[in-house]
Design brief:
Layout: E1 8-14, H1 18-27, E2 36-38, E3 43-49, E4 54-60, H2 70-74, E5 79-86, H3 90-100, E6 108-115, E7 120-129, E8 141-146, H4 149-152, E9 164-173, H5 177-188, E10 193-196, E11 199-202, E12 209-213, H6 215-221, E13 232-240, H7 243-252, E14 257-259, E15 265-267, E16 277-281
């Protein structure tokens, strides 16, 4: 891969109110740890953990500090906002990106402090920002190297009542397929990009894949967000141990959802704070 871009590490949902969102995602059947604060940025977040990836829910804590575009995104509503790709070495990813001639910024340190009842987790990352032209259909994207991966997941955090174990797919919308194919060939390498009629597939060898579709297809699926323009992150699919158990949790908590033809469950976006989420049998 041209910039050492690893698997999907974590998608990000941007929201107005983290306290209300935490309660809502607990209703969806997730174990939601307390919120943490980015020390160098003005953002706060909730991280719902799975074995190999996780869902970050991000809000604004200090509007006077760097917000990574969250404030601009929230002007048009809540929802899926970003994708962070894993980088085993931020320095190596940056070096190879520069050598490949793509738009990439030097790695920067990021510290997230998370206060639990019995301890404080001091989590550290190195992030690499990418030029916006490199990730059409994902709204925002960056690379993330975990420096404290051993403390990122705590006992009990992976045991979600809804049975979710990982992400299976992210879906983005693009209008310019030629431009998108060219961009991802530069970022990922042609071996990871497959174009078909009406869609482009991005495969990382492990973890979630990414499907890029047309605005018309997004409209047909009910996942269109015209307010976001003609290229944006549209939906995400989470894999579960047992779809019947997931449905039982939704029924018990009065979550509005519907069963799709493929057997997956589509949650009403209002129940997920603007995010279009599907739950599918692993």
């Amino acid at each position: 891969m041209t910039a050492k871009v690893g698997r999907v590490d974590h998608p990000v949902v941007a929201v107005y109110d983290l306290k209300a969102t935490r309660a809502q995602y607990q209703k969806l059947g997730f174990v939601v740890p307390p919120s943490g604060k980015h020390q160098e940025w003005g953002t706060e977040n909730l991280c719902i953990m799975f074995a190999g990836d996780y869902l970050e829910i991000r809000g604004i804590g200090d509007p006077n500090k760097f917000l990574a575009g969250v404030d601009k995104f929230l002007e048009k509503g809540q929802g899926l906002y970003s994708v962070a790709f894993n980088a085993k070495s931020a320095d190596e990813s940056y070096k190879m990106g520069i050598e490949s001639g793509i738009g990439i910024e030097p790695p920067k340190h990021l510290n997230r402090k998370l206060v639990l009842e019995d301890k404080v987790l001091d989590l550290h990352f190195r992030t690499v920002m990418l030029d916006h032209s490199l990730y059409p259909g994902l709204t925002h994207a960056n690379l993330c190297e975990h420096l404290t991966a051993d403390t990122l997941r705590q006992p009990g955090w992976l045991d979600h009542p809804n049975g979710v174990i990982s992400f299976g797919r992210l879906v983005g919308v693009v209008s310019d397929f030629d431009g998108a194919e060219s961009a991802y060939n530069k970022l990922l390498g042609a071996e990871s990009v497959r174009r078909e009629a009406g869609r482009i597939w991005l495969n990382f060898g492990e973890g979630a894949d990414i499907e890029l579709i047309t605005p018309a297809e997004a409209l047909q699926r009910g996942d269109d967000h015209p307010v976001r323009g003609d290229a944006y992150l549209a939906s995400a699919t989470l894999m579960v141990k047992d779809i019947a158990t997931t449905a039982q949790v939704f029924y018990a908590n009065n979550i509005r959802f519907r069963a799709e033809v493929d057997g997956s469950l589509r949650v009403d976006p209002q129940e997920a704070c603007g995010a279009h989420l599907y739950f599918k049998q692993a």
